[in-house]
Design a protein that fits this description.
The protein is α/β, with parallel strands linked by helices. The chain has two domains: about 170 residues, Hexapeptide repeat proteins (UDP N-Acetylglucosamine Acyltransferase, domain 1, 3 Solenoid); about 80 residues, Non-ribosomal Peptide Synthetase Peptidyl Carrier Protein, Chain A (Orthogonal Bundle), CATH 1.10.1200. Helices cover about 20% and strands about 25% of the residues. It has five helices and 21 strands. The chain has an eight-stranded mixed sheet with strand order 2-5-8-11-14-17-20-21. Strands 1-4-7-10-13-16-19 form a seven-stranded parallel sheet, with no helix packed on it. A six-stranded parallel sheet has the order 3-6-9-12-15-18, with no helix packed on it. Strand 20 and strand 21 form a beta hairpin. It is globular and about 55 Å long.
């Protein structure tokens, strides 16, 4: 109870520049929040700014609207100079960039282009290091794979990837980040939680410092970034020890390979 109360106080302080923040917000680290327009955030927001700082920025007249139960990982940046909408239950991976303006036109650094609104639908999943450009529309339940650049529309429920991102269908092949050796998963766990040493394979989540509900989300995002896959959150909830993570990643790789 005390921790929940403190989480709420900390979130209110760190999001104090926002116009509206729903109940249950949790913020880790110290994000940059610069609001010259309007920022509205729904209930049960989770916002990570550790180990790398995240940013929420609006320009004059800009609007950033974030729905309920949205998760934004560390190193992410969202800038709204017109309007950016992020729907309920959306998940934004580490180092994602969501920008509704190019800030200047090519060859003319003194002339700002017209911003174009961005919409990310309810339940959408945005992978690590994804860049979402002005005018992009990502449908409800869509998944954008790690490292992709979105500049147009992604259909609801679609899996998209590449530069530029496009829907992946049977027989398609897209470039993906080089995959790490699965034997390196304990080291990913170590880095995610800042441990002195990689945990043994039979270590249960409750035995690994930092592996709580929010830690599970951060670990999921770290695995997605490292292996260039999209992981079903229910898979992470079923993990009983570090060794189980190998199967989680293998199943995610198999799901992606069906589109290759």
């Amino acid at each position: 109870m005390a921790r929940s109360w403190l989480d709420g106080v900390r979130a209110r302080i760190r999001l104090r520049a926002c116009d509206q923040v729903g109940d249950g917000a949790v913020v880790t680290g110290a994000p940059l929040v610069r609001n010259l327009g309007r920022i509205e955030i729904g209930r049960d927001f989770r916002f990570s700014s550790s180990p790398v700082r995240s940013q929420l920025v609006t320009g004059v007249g800009g609007a950033l609207e974030i729905g309920d139960r949205v998760r934004i990982a560390h190193g992410a940046a969202v800038a709204a100079h017109a309007r950016v909408q992020i729907g309920d239950d959306a998940r934004i991976g580490p180092f994602a960039m969501i920008l509704d303006t190019d800030f200047h036109e090519a060859g003319d650094h003194g002339r700002a282009p017209e911003p174009r609104p961005i919409r990310i639908g309810a339940g959408a999943r945005i992978g690590a290091r994804v860049t979402i450009l002005p005018g992009a529309l990502i449908g409800d339940g869509a998944t954008v794979l790690a490292g992709s650049v979105v500049s147009a529309a992604i259909a609801p429920g679609a899996v998209a990837g590449g530069v530029p991102a496009r829907e992946i269908r049977d027989g398609d092949a897209i470039g993906r980040p080089d995959e790490q050796d699965l034997d390196g998963i304990p080291e990913i766990v170590r880095r995610t939680f800042g441990l002195a040493a990689a945990p043994p394979a039979d270590s249960a989540p409750h035995e690994v410092e930092g592996w709580d509900s929010l830690g599970t989300l951060n670990l999921l995002l770290s695995l997605e970034e490292s292996f260039g896959v999209a992981i079903d959150p229910s898979e992470m909830l079923a993990v009983t020890c570090v060794a189980d993570l190998r199967g989680v990643v293998e199943r995610a790789q198999t799901a992606v390979s069906r589109h290759d």
